[in-house]
Amino acid sequence: MSQTQPPGSPTIRTIAMPADTNPAGDIFGGWLMSQMDLAAGSVATQAARGRSATIAVEGMKFHRPVKVGDEVSLYAEIVHVGRTSMRIHVEAWRRERHRDDGEQVTEATFTFVALDANGAARPVKGD
Asked: Ranges for the HotDog ACOT-type domain (predicted)?
């Protein structure tokens, strides 16, 4: 688990809302995972210059809970590009809206495959 936020701007920044909670009142892990998938998908689509789809999620770790009202920043970075696939590491950070400092809450590596117009795998780099 990282102690410092990744450099640069987050891929996505959002606010955790009451509708996103689980029965315990914390933000539902599925909501957070979907936000991470959106961030990874944004990076994958840009890298592939077109459609891409999630095919795997590895190492999903929930380090800390997210609370209602927290600002959630998602940092996504490509860690490997294959012929038709990309592995993208995503870190989620929370910050109480009245504070300056944040903490990492979740991380995972998403694998995406580049798709052609028919939904078949295609080269990422358009070879």
From this structure: 6-118
